[in-house]
């Protein structure tokens, strides 16, 4: 079978191969070296692409490697002129100083002993609105537990009428590290402004004591609800995956376990 071949060389995942077709439709295939060899020898092969009836054709490189592009007219009539170019992958997403600051700056030592002997100290507690349990809280807690981190969760689900500060204080009293999931559902609960403004500051030292996780909410929305929260060290589910957040927390709270899991 006659075909045009373009050896694209080494390409990074996320690069885009742009094919300009002039004159007719054509079969366009983007293949790694192994599948290109199978294609040349008439064997079964895998590819990105297919019958292109419009131009330009844009094919995203799925992984790092050596890539080949072929264009042929099998099953078609006429001829086609082609042009091929490669666009580099996009730069990493810009992360604000707030969402990129190290979590080690948040209080994460064990709390002082409680009056009752033998009381359990949890590595992490999570405060959240119930609406965010499925999308954020359960996957986060599951991944933390997989990493060997103990999580105190259900007692800190926040409902309308709860005192947010009392819930947070109780969690900090028995945990190394606190998390609060900020979302539109969270702010709809109607907690007083002074409770929100006091969320992430310890009364004595002034050191941030909670990690806010922003979920489907913008900095402007957080700012409108509580300006003091908007500039705290935080993580956003729009910029980090749940697993990335969990692994970063584990590396701070229990570096011994995180190193063993690596």
Structure characterization notes:
- The chain has 2 domains: 4-87; 97-261, Toll/interleukin-1 receptor homology (TIR) domain (Rossmann fold, 3-Layer(aba) Sandwich).
- Helices cover 29% and strands 28% of the residues.
- It is built from 10 helices and 13 strands.
- It has helices spanning 33-40, 97-100, 133-146, 164-173, 184-187, 193-197, 219-225, 227-230, 242-253, 255-261; strands at residues 4-11, 16-22, 26-32, 48-52, 57-60, 65-72, 81-87, 122-129, 151-152, 157-158, 175-182, 210-214, 235-236.
- Strand 8, helix 3 (133-146) and strand 9 (151-152) form a beta-alpha-beta unit.
Describe the secondary-structure layout.
Elements: E1 4-11, E2 16-22, E3 26-32, H1 33-40, E4 48-52, E5 57-60, E6 65-72, E7 81-87, H2 97-100, E8 122-129, H3 133-146, E9 151-152, E10 157-158, H4 164-173, E11 175-182, H5 184-187, H6 193-197, E12 210-214, H7 219-225, H8 227-230, E13 235-236, H9 242-253, H10 255-261
Parallel strand pairs: 8-9, 8-10, 8-11, 11-12, 12-13
Antiparallel strand pairs: 1-6, 2-5, 2-7, 3-4, 3-6
Domain TIR: 120-257
InterPro entries: DUF1883, DUF1883-like_sf, TIR_dom, Toll_tir_struct_dom_sf
Organism: Phytohabitans aurantiacus
| Secondary-structure content class | alpha/beta
Mean pLDDT: 82
Beta content comes to 25-35%
Number of domains: 2
Shape: elongated
Oligomer: single chain
CATH topology of the largest domain: Rossmann fold
What does the largest sheet look like? 6 strands, parallel
Distance between termini?
49 Å
Query: What's the CATH architecture name of the largest domain?
Result: 3-Layer(aba) Sandwich
Number of strands: 13
């Amino acid at each position: 079978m006659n075909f045009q071949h373009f050896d694209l060389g080494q390409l990074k995942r996320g690069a885009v191969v742009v094919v300009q077709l002039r004159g007719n439709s054509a079969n366009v295939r983007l293949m790694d070296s192994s599948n290109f060899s199978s294609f040349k020898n008439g064997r079964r092969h895998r590819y990105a692409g297919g019958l292109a009836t419009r131009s330009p054709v844009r094919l995203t490189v799925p992984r790092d490697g050596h890539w080949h592009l072929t264009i042929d007219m099998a099953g078609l009539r006429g001829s086609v002129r082609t042009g091929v170019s490669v666009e580099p992958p996009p730069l990493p997403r810009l992360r604000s100083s707030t969402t990129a600051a190290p979590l080690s700056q948040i209080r994460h030592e064990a709390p002082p002993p409680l009056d009752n002997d033998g009381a359990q100290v949890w590595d992490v507690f999570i405060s959240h609105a119930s609406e965010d349990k499925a999308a954020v809280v359960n996957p986060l807690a599951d991944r933390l537990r997989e990493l060997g981190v103990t999580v105190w969760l259900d007692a800190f689900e926040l409902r309308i009428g709860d005192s947010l500060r009392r819930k947070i204080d109780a969690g900090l009293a028995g945990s190394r590290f606190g998390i609060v999931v900020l979302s539109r559902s969270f702010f709809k609960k109607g907690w007083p402004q002074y409770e929100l403004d006091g969320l992430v500051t310890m009364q004595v030292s002034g050191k941030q004591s909670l990690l806010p996780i922003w979920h489907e909410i913008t900095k402007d929305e957080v700012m409108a609800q509580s300006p003091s929260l908007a500039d705290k060290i935080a993580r956003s589910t729009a910029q980090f995956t749940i697993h990335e957040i969990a692994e970063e927390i584990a590396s701070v709270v229990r570096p011994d376990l995180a190193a063993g899991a690596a």
